[in-house]
Amino acid sequence: MSEDSDAAANVTTTVPSQSLSNESVSKTQLAIQSLSSILTTAPPSLFSSINSAFSLLHDHEISSQISALLRQPDSGAGDNDLCRWFYDTFQSDYPHLQLVVLRFLPAIAGLYLSRISLRKPLAGFEAVLLALYAHETTSRDNQSITVSIPDLSHPSIYHESREHAKNNSTELNLGVISPALEPHGTVRSTRRARIVGVALELYYSKIDIMPVESKIEFCEFCEVWSGQDGEMYKELGGVVVENGENQETVKRDGRIPLPWELLQPVLRILGHCILGPKKDDKLFDSAFSACRSLYARSLHDINPKAILAFRSLLRLINTSLDPKSAVDYTEPSFSNVITI
């Protein structure tokens, strides 16, 4: 089954059965007509497609035009038509159209963070990011995202605890993946990483539906953000660090601050790109290269948490590339030799 057909199946299951009602079709056609006035050309088939939103999500020609417009020097200004279209489309509250906006989040976030130091007007990008952040704030309803951490003091399906079972659920070990969100109407320097990070968390929640090109674009921006060249760790996989003068990696342009609020969703997205169920060689290579660059950056910044995370991810990559890892030792071996 192809990538697009898999995505089509996933999109179909994320919305109610009446997803192609007259209202949704009307919203989609209005969005396409508005977008066609911004783009140079729009394929005629897009207007006649039964599921125009899905076609808009995966149309290579339209994606190329939008990416080109986003990379123009004045693309992030407050009066930019494309940014206004992204904002209005996401506010339509139609899931299929919201996926189209998320498809271009890597470019929006990547260009926004890379241009902060240039002191250019970026109100258009900020409006889109704030719309995504507000959507997540409303969806989470002031609740943090947590995960239960295994604890041997509590019984499980694999073992019995020697201590008496505790009925108080609050005594479970809970790890906070993403703290509760506070509403923000503007982007300040102290909130920027958190707002962009939450937008990337929303992107990660839909990443199995996103086209491969969108994920590759994200990996490329991760390399730009790192400002480091991680090629020296290609063979080593980030496990062994060279000593002496070879330890200093080559610096690149585009380096940005990388606090944990930003690195955490980046790690999840890269982990999916590398170890996800849908294998794509180009995506794997882009994500692997991004991991090496970010690992080099974490070593340069002496960031223990980031060093541990990226080195662990690189170890997983090495394990997956090792031919011996494909052997399933739980399977019984067969032989034509009879041993007496």
TrEMBL record:
The keyword DNA damage does not apply. It comes from Erythroxylum novogranatense. Signal peptide: none annotated. Residues 1-20 are annotated as: Disordered. Residues 10-20 have a biased composition (Polar residues). It comes from the Eukaryota. The keyword Cytoplasm applies. One of its GO terms (biological process) is protein localization to plasma membrane. It is found in: Cell membrane; Cytoplasm, Cytosol. Its main location: membrane. Keywords: Cell membrane, Cytoplasm, Membrane. One of its GO terms (cellular component) is plasma membrane. Belongs to the Hyccin family. This is Hyccin.
